[in-house]
């Protein structure tokens, strides 16, 4: 009997809270997708101070062992020619201002060497990802300008297609009425241009046809900055097994999204009945916030116990990571939370302070420290470096 108990005791000892923290804090954790900047233009939260709402601030980021954040620069599809690029720059300005106000806490990283240097100085490395090809307004010189300001990935489409790339939403819902499908010739030029600049091509949000056109065009590994496994949750924003395999062949990385709707296939039905019940209240919140997502986040806060039931368990999120690792290997998975970009995340995942729970769960599944390092950021670092090289 004693003999049987020993491995168990050894394992529990290994998983002490201190041990989890040690392994977690040592890793260079890179989150590839956070939407706090576009929200901050509305909320005006001071991100250097601990906030009680939202998922991100510099205090909680430190607690969660976050070493590098790729901030999403995003605006909706109502922005187009003449407004979208300006909006992108406005959000980049607000990141620059945050950095200027807090030089001891956060600094801009334009490459992997700068990222590592900033981590050594115990500051958060801030990187820029532009989410939505519409923000370049069909202009190559706008890509150059954004790259100069620090853009390290461009998500080719958001939910809306561009004139040169079709999105996941449009490929599914407008298939027969689309003027073109996948990447146009100009879209291919854009991919090559990004390759040349060392800006990662982000395939989250793009349609399947665009996805495969990108892989046939790019000379560098791609990133899916915030997507999950379609086999577990068949949502058009998630990647099918064949796509995941193709992405691995390209040497790329898929960074798992924490949004409950992409993690749990039962989530949207549960939410629909919740919203139906509180419709009048939600309508009045939309009038205050002028934004359905922010209004829904507020509604969730008001009905905390009820909304808590809608959230999938943390184990479901971990299942996506584990599933992808088993399908395509541990070298192609990362973390792309989508914090501050969604109204719901799995239970226990409330903010950037909660990343250590992922390390804890992976240790429970007997992942080695080396593999955990890769998932938390090592793989993204590899892709970042590969894109910068000629
Ligand atoms: Zn997104």
Please supply descriptive tags for the structure shown above.
dipeptidase, TIM Barrel, 51% helix, 19 helices, 9 strands, 390 residues, three-stranded parallel β-sheet, globular, binds zinc ion, six-stranded parallel β-sheet, alpha/beta
Short account of what is shown:
Pfam families: Peptidase_M19. This protein has 390 residues and is an alpha/beta fold.
What does this 3D model show about the protein?
The chain is of the alpha/beta class and 390 residues long. It folds into two domains: 19-266 and 313-388, Metal-dependent hydrolases (TIM Barrel, Alpha-Beta Barrel), CATH 3.20.20.140; 271-311, no CATH class. It has helices at 2-14, 17-26, 36-43, 58-63, 84-101, 112-120, 140-148, 168-173, 185-197, 208-217, 241-249, 260-263, 267-277, 279-289, 292-302, 304-308, 314-328, 356-364, 369-388; strands spanning 29-34, 66-74, 106-108, 124-131, 151-155, 200-202, 223-224, 253-256, 333-335. The strands form two sheets. Strands 1, 2, 3, 4, 5 and 6 form a six-stranded parallel sheet that branches. A three-stranded parallel sheet has the order 7-8-9. Helix 7 (140-148) links the parallel strand 4 and strand 5 (151-155). Helix 7 (140-148) runs parallel beside helix 9 (185-197). The longest helix has 20 residues, at 369-388. The chain starts with a helix and ends with a helix. Bound molecules: zinc ion. Residues 131, 205, 226, 341 line the site of zinc ion.
């Amino acid at each position: 009997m004693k003999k049987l108990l020993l491995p168990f005791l050894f394992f529990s000892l290994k998983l002490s809270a201190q041990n989890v923290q040690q392994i977690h804090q040592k890793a260079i954790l890179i989150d590839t997708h956070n939407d706090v900047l576009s929200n901050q233009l509305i909320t005006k939260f001071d991100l250097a101070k601990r906030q009680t709402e939202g998922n991100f601030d510099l205090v909680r980021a430190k607690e969660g062992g976050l070493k590098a954040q790729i901030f999403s620069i995003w605006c909706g599809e109502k922005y187009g020619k003449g407004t979208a690029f300006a909006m992108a720059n406005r959000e980049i300005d607000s990141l620059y201002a945050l950095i200027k106000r807090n030089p001891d806490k956060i600094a801009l990283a334009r490459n992997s060497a700068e990222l590592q240097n900033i981590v050594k100085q115990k500051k958060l490395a801030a990187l820029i990802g532009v989410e939505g090809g519409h923000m370049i307004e069909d202009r190559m010189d706008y890509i150059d300008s954004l790259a100069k300001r620090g853009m390290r990935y461009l998500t080719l489409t958001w939910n809306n297609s561009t004139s040169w790339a079709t999105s996941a939403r449009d490929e599914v819902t407008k298939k027969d009425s689309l003027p073109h499908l996948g990447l146009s010739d100009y879209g291919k030029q854009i991919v090559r241009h990004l390759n040349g600049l060392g800006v990662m091509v982000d395939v989250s949000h793009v349609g399947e046809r665009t996805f495969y056109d990108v892989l046939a065009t790019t000379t560098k590994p791609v990133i899916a900055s915030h997507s999950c496994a379609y086999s577990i949750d068949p949502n058009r924003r998630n990647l099918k097994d064949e796509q995941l395999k193709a992405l691995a062949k390209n040497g790329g990385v898929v960074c798992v999204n924490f949004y409950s709707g992409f993690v749990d296939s039962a989530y949207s039905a549960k939410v629909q009945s919740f919203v139906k019940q509180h419709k009048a209240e939600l309508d009045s919140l939309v009038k205050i916030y002028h934004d359905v997502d922010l209004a829904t986040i507020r509604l969730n806060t008001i009905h905390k116990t009820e909304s808590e039931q809608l959230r999938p368990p943390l184990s479901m999120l971990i299942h996506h990571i584990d599933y992808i690792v088993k399908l395509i290997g541990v070298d192609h998975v990362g973390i792309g939370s989508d914090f501050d970009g969604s109204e719901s995340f799995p239970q226990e995942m409330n903010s950037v302070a909660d990343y250590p729970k992922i390390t804890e769960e992976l240790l429970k599944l007997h992942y080695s420290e080396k593999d955990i390092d890769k998932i938390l950021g090592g793989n993204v670092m590899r892709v970042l470096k590969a894109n910068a090289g000629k």
